[in-house]
Design brief:
The structure holds 2 protein chains of 2 kinds. Chain A is of the alpha+beta class. Chain A contains 30 helices and 38 strands. In chain A, helix 2 packs across helix 7. Chain B has a single domain, classed as 2-Layer Sandwich (Ribosomal Protein S5, domain 2), CATH 3.30.230. Helix content of chain B is about 30%, strand content about 30%. In chain B, the strands form 2 sheets. Chain B has a 5-stranded mixed β-sheet with strand order 1-2-3-5-4. Classes of the chains: A alpha+beta, B alpha+beta. Chains A and B meet through strand 2 and helix 3 of A and loops of B.
Chain lengths: ~1050, ~240
């Protein structure tokens, strides 16, 4: 039975009156205690997460500890934590939603050993607040009382440690009950976790930053920034149209001065603004940081400023015409994350004055302001990349203050830099834990994985009846997809796409599922990859390798024998045995009728001549038929008025996602297209199916049509070369891009295509419940519905789609739906998360490529090394320079025509350039540099020039590539090697060379290492690795080529 | 109020109830001697008083009389001190008129009006404290009062409200939950037959979820019935002891 109590609250209304509110409060005899020691688990109704039973004590943090040290409580090493409801509510009320959500996620996370105890709803734990008792005292008293009850509830078998920051509470309760200890947090860490160094350091740094803040609030500084307005005023202002809400985007190249606010949704229509709003200067930015959701007030028109169009740090250029300018009046949501920073070097520290306990550190990301850290370890941390968090930014302080969290690695060291890229993109890739690996199936030589008889009964067996084969790049390990085609008895054809059945092994809400969801995708960096699933799944049990039995999810279409019209479709779980694991080149050779390649296919090697011939015939027929079908499917879609952008789209996507070293889209083999077409077909049909069954909670992928205004640059550029680009529809765009081909210069077309790609918006995952059906359209593929289904091994979205499809099938059969599906709201949130992770994956890939490029050029002397001089194409004109693309290395960068001393470039008749005094004049499609001597040189769009590549080293940020025009004539390559080939070769070359030189450097250091070893061990970051693993990773790179080829 | 969590991850509501649990209900019948029937009910902190007069001759204009059944006249009012803010609530304002009409519809469906043609039944309800679910409290109080007056009814009319938060239906909303602005459904049920006397909702709710919310409200109404039934039995027992049977 519930007991009713009443709580009296005194609230203050906005008008300032006090309101007496009586609220009911119901108590119950039992709430779940979630302890394995519970004497009556049935009464407590413990379901869900339990505390683990192998702890020595339970820890109950006081409200203050939860508020201030939540970061430390997040360490998975701290076990047996019971959060009291009182403490959670204190966090919710006093620390805001962000912190509270962190706590909620912690409680939900099955990997952390912590539970919530709803003490305020428990009959004997609830204490009413007494008259005159302060909130803080009452909270501590409630928590202590609940701790005592909990101790007795577990029959005094488990000692309980209550951790508090309140000295009085320690004195008062310290020795009141035996078995319930009350100590301070610092004490607790010292006594119970003396070995957990990271927590101590974190605790120390939090304490220190708090002390600093207290000191500061006592000293009354002059204010650096205006105060933020209260939330009610902001909300009212946004509604009335006085203020505008948007996300702050800092300009990377002028982080100190320029930031833009991108408008969100409706507000842009109301205010009649088309462009973004410029925020000029740090003062107007008013303590907001890149990514925050801010509220902006527009300045009067006479104070509007223009944005700068000049390149880089050269100041004093005339800005463009004024645009809406504003200032930040409040921040709605702070998007602070972990930041990688660098401590200043010794000389800089001295210049910062004696007061060196507060140190200004420089974030790796240009867009983030410097952060004040108070630490004594500054000198020791000088040569390292370090992670910090921002605590607060008071209006009295020029810079935000933060605290030190952990060390990543040495500056300039490959591992350290890679870790930096990962942290900056919020990617966390710890090795899979033991609990996660325990859920994995076993497949060893002694104990091979086998198809279970139970599954054999439930699944359709295709092992005997179908010729299944896969086509992948050479050396691919994770084969997600296989194909089959055969003639049916009634003369029709049956086309099958069989996808690895990952969801069979990854059950919903298991540890591995949670981990995969957090990773969301496999991350491919330039020299390595971080798998979403453990290799036992990704490369073995799930992978549809040749000659072994595997579970699959299949889609099979029955096609008319002549028109290839789809008559029937079947979805379901199957067992398959892939007969051949082909690679693209081999498949293409077979398709072309060139059977010599057979020797390269391992499956054929051990066959005698006769059976080999028969098998080969069979395979040849299948591949031929498959290509034929794919051709027809595409042709039919074109005929039906469907827009044929796919070919182009594939290419563009390739360029965008792929390592940019593959610049020129390889004329894709027809086999590539065949496989891609089958996958698109499968994805499309699955999308249709799951949308039909779950109209409000299906995960689909849409590609919104691009904004026409973004195409203006593309049109201008094309005009310069005399092409007309029609951007009105995707079909028109594709056609006109095909036509815009300069026979003398293939790069032109490629550049135009990449510009078109840049103008397009990204494809996104979404939940069908939160979007109107018209918006489902996929612009690039010209399909009304599309999803991702074919690569569950490396994308989490595909796993969800698999579960949806399985649920849809069982719904059709009127069976109970086994899977618990996400609701629309949860799914939408998950989609947003996956989209975000995909972006992070792309960024990290790009950044790691740039890192390798820089490392490659770093030790080359630009003056002498022949490789540093290359041919470049101008693809954009700015007021003081041009943007140049170097096809050979796939590098894009800026080249100045005016240097820091104000000298401009001039070219002698033989093309060689010098710096001379003069002026620049910019036109629509060209830029002219005139020296005082009257010589002038003009650079047009798409001109070929010779550039010298050098590396601009930077201590705090990533190194950047610098380009310098040394001649206005195209660079003649000394070797006659084919352009395309060289660039392709170079990619792996470059990575290999860089990794090897790093390795050598490390070997050379070996002697010295003994001394440094300690440091390495201390931070566990940099470890010497064997050459073998390095080479393995280089081999993995091959995966890159493929994996995106149909990953539209 | 934006930060308030109506349903925690552990399944508790703000006041400590779980999703399907009712607030504490206490009720008494026969609180006034001069009326034909009267009752007082507390549902949590919502308190309502109902009195019933009739069936009697039509008062006022005779033209209102119905030839085949009795006229049910309902009036609703709420006390100045019933909410957090003290506020004078004149008779005949829009809100109380609407509530009166709803009560009338409810009781026309439940009372066997055809037994008393050309007569009138008056039901007056006053809310003394409003803490969510006023309509439900009014209906439940009026049911007891009608029973007390001995007017024949088809069945008890039991009412309860229900809301919808994060995919879960909440029964018997309190004021805090109502103020959060989610959908809110009021249901008056004739429990033994399962017929619905009145169903009202004035917010948007997806069709698919309606059934779930409706079921939660119906279950809550059945629970209310059990409690009211107990109150009536006890009242009758006490009365019979007083009469000396």
């Amino acid at each position: 039975m519930l007991q009713k109590r009443e709580k009296v609250l005194l609230l203050r209304t906005f008008q300032g009156r006090t309101l007496r509110i009586v609220r009911e409060h119901y108590l119950r005899p039992s709430v779940p205690c979630n302890s394995p020691l519970c004497p009556q688990p049935a009464v407590c109704r413990n379901d869900g997460k339990l505390l683990s039973s192998d702890v020595t004590h339970y820890m109950i943090p006081d409200w203050k500890v939860v508020q201030d040290y939540l970061e430390i409580l997040e360490f998975p090493e701290l076990k047996g934590i019971i959060f009291m409801q009182t403490a959670c509510q204190a966090v919710q009320h006093q620390r805001g939603r962000r912190q509270y959500n962190k706590l909620r996620n912690l409680l939900k996370d099955a990997r952390h050993d912590c539970v919530l105890f709803a003490n305020e709803f428990q009959q004997s734990c609830y204490l009413p607040r007494e008259r005159g008792e302060s909130m803080e005292k009452w909270q501590s008293r409630s928590i202590y009382n609940a701790a005592t009850w909990y101790y007795h509830h577990c029959q005094d078998r488990m000692p309980i440690v209550m951790v508090t920051e309140d000295e009085e509470a320690i004195q008062q309760y310290g020795s009141e009950t035996e078995g319930v200890f009350v100590i301070s947090f610092k004490n607790y860490l010292d006594n119970f976790w003396p070995d957990l160094k990271a927590t101590h350091e974190l605790c120390e740094s939090i304490l220190q930053s708090r002390r600093e803040r207290e000191n500061e609030s006592q000293e009354s500084h002059g204010k650096e920034y205006p105060e933020h307005l209260p939330l009610e005023v902001l909300e009212a202002g946004i509604k009335s149209g006085r203020y505008i809400q948007g996300t702050l985007n800092v300009n990377k190249h002028r982080a100190q001065i320029e930031a833009f606010v991108r408008l969100q949704g409706a507000s842009s229509k109301d205010s009649g603004l088309v462009s973004d709003i410029l925020i000029h200067g740090m003062k107007a930015r008013n303590r907001s940081i890149h990514g925050d959701v801010v509220v902006v007030e527009l300045l009067p028109k006479n104070e509007w400023k223009g944005r700068t169009t000049a390149l880089g740090e050269n100041d004093g250029e005339s800005p463009s015409e004024p645009m809406p300018t504003g200032r930040v009046v409040g921040i709605l949501q702070k998007n602070w994350r972990d930041y990688v920073v660098t401590f200043p070097s010794k000389e800089e520290v001295q210049s910062q004055g004696k007061n060196a306990r507060k140190i200004l550190v420089t974030p790796w990301d240009y867009r983030i302001p410097k952060i004040r850290i108070s630490t004594q370890q500054a000198e020791a941390l000088q040569d390292f990349r370090v992670v910090v968090r921002i605590d607060s930014w008071e209006s009295t302080s020029m810079y935000p203050s933060g605290h030190f969290v952990r060390v990543l690695g040495r500056i300039g060291d490959l591992e350290g830099e890679i870790a930096t890229i990962l942290v900056e993109n919020s990617i966390s890739v710890v090795p899979f834990s033991e609990a996660q690996m325990c859920e994995m199936p076993v497949n060893t030589t002694e104990n091979p994985w086998k198809v279970s008889s139970e599954e054999e009964r439930e699944r359709k067996d295709l092992r005997k009846t179908h010729l299944v084969f896969s086509i992948d790049p050479r050396g691919c390990e994770d084969v997600d997809d296989t194909l089959s085609v055969r003639a049916l008895d009634n003369g029709n054809l049956e086309l099958g796409v069989h996808i690895a059945d990952v969801t069979h092994f990854v059950t919903s809400h298991s540890y591995i599922d949670i981990e995969a969801r957090t990773r969301a995708t496999t991350y491919y960096l330039a020299d390595r990859r971080y798998d979403m699933l453990p290799s036992i799944l990704s490369a073995d049990v799930c992978s549809l390798l040749g000659g072994v039995d595997r579970y699959a999810v299949s889609i099979m279409w029955e096609l008319d024998k002549t028109s290839y019209e789809i008559k029937k479709v079947w979805y379901g779980r199957t067992i398959i045995r892939s007969a051949y694991k082909l690679f693209y080149e081999a498949a293409q050779e077979l398709l072309d009728g060139n059977v010599d390649i057979v020797d390269d296919i391992p499956e054929f090697r051990d066959m005698d001549e006769k059976s080999r011939q028969a098998k080969l015939e069979e395979l040849l027929w299948a591949i031929g038929k498959l290509t034929d079908i794919a051709r027809h499917i595409r042709a039919k879609r074109d005929r039906c008025g469907a827009l044929g952008l796919e070919g182009v789209e594939v290419c563009i996507q390739l360029d965008e996602k792929k390592n940019i070293h593959d610049l020129i889209p390889k004329q894709p083999l027809e086999v590539h297209e065949t496989v891609a077409e089958c996958m698109i077909l499968a994805n499309h049909w699955v999308a249709k199916k799951i949308y039909e069954s779950f109209p409000r909670q299906a995960l689909l992928r849409r590609h919104p049509p691009p904004h026409q205004e973004f195409f203006s640059e593309l049109r201008e550029c094309a005009k310069a070369k005399g092409f007309f680009i029609d951007t009105r529809s995707n079909k028109a765009l594709a056609d006109s891009l095909d036509n815009a081909n300069d026979p003398n210069d293939p790069i032109v077309n490629w550049l135009l295509r990449s510009m078109a790609t840049q103008a397009m918006s990204n494809a996104l995952y979404f939940s069908t419940g939160s979007c109107a059906e018209e918006e489902f359209h996929h612009y690039g593929l010209a399909l009304d519905k599309y999803t991702h289904f074919t690569s569950p091994i490396r994308r989490y979205s595909d796993i969800i789609v698999h579960r949806l499809l399985m649920a849809a099938i069982s719904k059709d059969k009127k069976m109970e739906i086994k899977e618990n599906l996400f609701s629309n709201k949860d799914l939408e949130e998950l989609c947003r998360y996956i989209n975000n992770r995909n972006r992070a994956a792309q960024h990290s890939q790009k950044q790691s490529t740039e890192l390798f490029q820089c490392m490659y050029f770093k030790d080359k002397d630009p003056e002498t090394e022949e490789r540093c001089i290359a041919d470049g194409v101008i693809y954009s004109i700015r007021t003081n320079g041009v943007l140049v693309f170097i096809p050979r290395f796939g590098i894009k960068g800026a080249a100045y025509l005016k240097n820091k001393d104000g000298l401009v470039i001039s070219c002698s008749p033989d093309g060689h350039s010098e710096w001379k005094p003069g002026s620049l004049q910019r036109f629509q499609n060209k830029i002219t540099s005139t020296t005082t001597g009257g010589e002038s040189v003009t650079f047009h769009l798409f001109d070929h020039v010779t550039v010298r590549i050098s590396v601009q080293a930077s201590r705090c940020h990533s190194d950047t590539i610098r380009l310098e025009i040394i001649s206005n004539k195209p660079y003649m390559m000394p070797d006659t090697e084919l352009f395309q080939q060289s660039s392709l070769l170079l990619k792996s070359d470059l990575v290999k060379e860089v990794t090897r030189s790093m390795e050598e450097a490390q070997l050379a250091q070996e002697v010295k290492v003994n001394v440094i070893e300690k440091d390495y061990q201390k931070y566990c970051q940099t470890k010497g690795r064997s050459l073998y693993t390095l080479l393995e990773e280089i081999r993995d790179l091959a995966l890159l080529d493929v994996s995106n080829s149909y990953g539209i | 109020m934006a930060g308030l969590e109506l349903l925690s991850d552990q399944g508790y509501r703000v006041d400590g109830r779980r999703a399907g649990e009712l607030r504490k209900i206490q009720a008494r019948m026969g609180v006034f001697a001069q009326a034909d029937g009267s009752a007082y009910i507390e549902q949590g902190n919502t308190k309502a008083l109902a009195v019933v007069y009739g069936p009697h001759e039509i008062r006022g204009s005779r033209a209102r009389a119905l030839p085949d059944r009795a006229l049910v006249n309902c009036q609703y009012s709420s006390a100045t001190f019933s909410t957090g803010e003290r506020k004078r609530r004149p008779h005949g304002d829009r809100k109380s008129c609407e509530m009166g009409l709803q009560l009338r519809q409810t009781f026309e469906a439940a009372v066997l009006t055809q037994l008393h043609p050309r007569s009138q039944i008056d039901i007056y309800v006053q809310v003394l404290q409003a803490d969510g679910g006023t309509y439900a409290a009014c209906v439940n109080a009026a049911t007891l009062a009608v029973l007390d007056a001995g007017i024949p009814m088809r069945d008890f009319v039991c009412a309860c409200s229900a809301g919808f938060v994060d995919g879960t239906a909440l029964a018997d909303l309190s004021h805090v939950e109502e103020a959060a602005g989610g959908p809110q459904l009021a249901l008056a049920l004739l429990p033994s037959s399962g017929q619905i006397a009145l169903l009202e909702m004035d917010a948007r709710l997806h069709e698919d979820q309606l059934e779930q919310v409706l079921e939660a409200a119906a279950q809550a109404a059945r629970d209310v019935h059990t409690l009211l039934d107990r109150v009536v039995r006890q009242h009758v027992q006490e009365a019979s002891i007083l009469l000396g049977d």
